[in-house]
Amino acid sequence: MGDSIRIAVVCSSNQNRSMEAHAVLGKKGFNVRSFGSGNQVKLPGPSQDRPNVYEFGTPYETMYNDLINKDKNLYTQNGILHMLDRNRRIKTCPERFQNCFDKFDVIFTCEERVYDQVVEDLSSRNPIDYSTVHIINIDVQDNHEEATLGAFLIFRMAQSLANSKDLDNDIDELLQEFETNINRPLLHTIAFQ
């Protein structure tokens, strides 16, 4: 399979963790796409009860300019402008996983709730050719430091999976070894596409 495995990274609706993993995997030559799983893109606002909400498909450039106009200092200090700047260099706009019908070999999620959403969504679809997709969850906290660490853990895991000559046969052993090395629990299931 090599680095030609098709990877999706799906996180919640704010895009930080999935885009950080997308950036790392993309730089390392992986065929990767990133997604959110919520109904809208939610970015921190001036207070916890006032997030900035955008529809999926809204260009990162639009979000970036909107937040500069709202409060450049606040969104510079909390890192949101930096995150959006990185995102707009990777792709045009955020995508919602449930609206994508492309096939992947591996889907990484960053929290159990999103893992459940992905599994539920895939199980509700009518498979086209019954090819398998491995859905793997590794919990990554939603902050800049953890997103960076999580991206490198996902990269290491993707590298290990890409080096397998028979992923379907080797995956349980590879994940068990990886789980032991990183001392974090993983979730894994197979779905059909």
Q: Any idea of the CATH class of the largest domain? A: Alpha Beta
Task: Going across the biggest sheet, name each strand in turn.
Answer: 2-1-5-6-7
Helix content: 40-55%
Tally of separate domains: 2
Largest sheet: 5 strands, mixed
Structural class: alpha/beta
The averaged pLDDT comes out at 93
What is Rg?
17 Å
Strand runs, count: 7
Q: Say what the CATH topology of the largest domain is.
A: Rossmann fold
The CATH architecture of the largest domain can be named as 3-Layer(aba) Sandwich
Estimate what percentage of residues fall within beta strands.
15-25%
Number of helices: 6
Stretches with pLDDT under 50, minimum 5 residues: none
Shape: globular
